[in-house]
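ok posting inputs for the 2-acetamido-2-deoxy-beta-D-glucopyranose job
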Amino acid sequence: MMCSRKIKISVMLFLVLIPIFTALPHNHNLSKRSNFFDLECKGIFNKTMFFRLDRICEDCYQLFRETSIHRLCKKDCFDSKWFGECLKVLLIPPEEITNLQHFLRVVNGSPITFNMSPVQT
Ligand SMILES: *[C@@H]1O[C@H](CO)[C@@H](O)[C@H](O)[C@H]1NC(C)=O
Ligand SMILES: *[C@@H]1O[C@H](CO)[C@@H](O)[C@H](O)[C@H]1NC(C)=O
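and the output
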């Protein structure tokens, strides 16, 4: 009696969980490092610089577990306001932001369109 009830419960759980899992966005490919060309970066590919920028978006994604954050952060080769927002929430120190701005200019290849400046005075 107990046993069949348990089976019923697990079957029900199973039936409920399957649609939930299949409905979830497919994240398996997220961990894959994004590619310089995929992001349409027009600057110089410097691995150190690129992976540092990529890392910001990775960390930002880890914080929110939100797929759209991950995508938006890398949009236009990191030149989106989301990248700036990620720097803010990750509490990146101003010296590091200055570094990252330099990295971004090199990797992105075009004048950055948003203001990443940490000081708003
Ligand atoms: C991940 O993406 C690649 C193409 O970018 C695809 O070939 C592969 O099947 C995907 N893997 C999974 C687990 O979805
Ligand atoms: C890439 O950038 C790093 C950090 O600024 C620098 O030390 C390194 O020499 C650069 N590498 C190339 C190949 O330009």
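notes: The pocket of 2-acetamido-2-deoxy-beta-D-glucopyranose (ligand 1) is lined by residues 28-29 (CB under 6 Å). The domain at 39-121 is CATH 1.10.2010 (Crustacean CHH/MIH/GIH neurohormone).
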